[in-house]
Design brief:
- The protein is α/β, with parallel strands linked by helices and about 220 residues long.
- It folds into two domains: about 120 residues, Rossmann fold (3-Layer(aba) Sandwich); about 90 residues, Winged helix-like DNA-binding domain superfamily/Winged helix DNA-binding domain (Arc Repressor Mutant, subunit A, Orthogonal Bundle), CATH 1.10.10.
- It contains eight helices and twelve strands.
- The strands form three sheets. It has a five-stranded parallel β-sheet with strand order 2-1-3-4-5, sandwiched between helices.
- Helix 1 crosses helix 5, helix 2 packs parallel to helix 3 and helix 6 crosses helix 8.
- The longest helix has 17 residues.
- The N and C termini lie far apart (about 45 Å).
- About 30% of the residues are buried.
- The chain binds calcium ion (CA).
- The site of calcium ion has 5 residues, from loops.
Length: about 220
């Protein structure tokens, strides 16, 4: 597995490379110190995963990610950031990041996230998922409700796919965070609620039957009632 690390902090970049390459999972790491060169490398299609710093010279991480996603490139991206506000994380996820790690981080944590992302990207294949009048294509990350296509950013797609795969089960915020972002709860607890609101607007509000329900003091359930 080739991993591209786009990070301008030389010390952090070198440590990431070293910790991934000594992990003995067979990772091979390429470093890129700025957004434009990083984007060119990412576009080569040679990498199975990208670790992308948010603050970069020449072109920032969000712009790199948006450009990649707009071009249809769906390589898993783990974004690194020094910012810890909910809005910053949402901005990164909206741009198409698959996961988010805040600096400073433990290298063991980074490796765990990388593993989870690779595992998840392999699961993103397979048959359509259906529940009620919702249909999900897990290969192309497309969603329909009652034959109307609903366009969702990656983070919303992932959360909806998780809800639909686990329809009729109460899902705690912890479950959602762990499965969608593989992160300890912390700040992500609020993010679950933010994304549930986004999803409701697109998946429930335009339709007469509501599928996303709040379970008081517990979490959420995706269910046709
Ligand atoms: Ca930076």
């Amino acid at each position: 597995m080739n991993i591209l690390v786009i990070e301008d902090d030389k010390k952090i970049a070198t440590l990431i490379k070293k910790s991934l390459e000594t992990d003995d999972s067979g990772y091979k790491v390429t470093l890129s110190p700025n957004g434009t060169d990083g984007l060119a490398l990412a576009n080569s299609g040679a990498y199975g995963l990208i670790i992308l710093d948010r603050g970069l010279p020449k072109m920032d991480g969000i712009a790199v990610l948006q450009t990649l996603r707009e071009a249809g490139n769906r390589v898993p991206v783990l974004m690194l950031t020094a910012k810890t506000e909910v809005e910053d994380i949402v901005a990164g996820l909206d741009a198409g990041a698959d996961d988010y790690l805040m600096k400073p981080f433990e290298f063991a944590e980074l490796i765990a996230r990388v593993r989870a992302l690779i595992r998840r990207s392999k699961q993103d294949r397979g048959a359509e998922i259906r529940y009620a009048d919702v249909r999900i294509d897990p290969v192309n990350h497309k969603v329909w409700r009652a034959n109307t296509e609903i366009i969702l950013p990656e983070a919303e797609y992932r959360m909806l796919a998780y809800l639909v795969r686990n329809a009729e089960k109460v899902l705690y915020r912890e479950d959602i965070v762990e499965n969608c972002w593989n992160s300890p709860l912390g700040i992500f607890s609020n993010i679950v609620d933010v994304y549930i609101n986004f999803l409701r607007k697109k998946v429930d509000v335009p339709f007469s039957t509501k599928l996303i329900h709040t379970v008081h003091r517990q979490g959420y359930i995706f269910e046709e009632r």
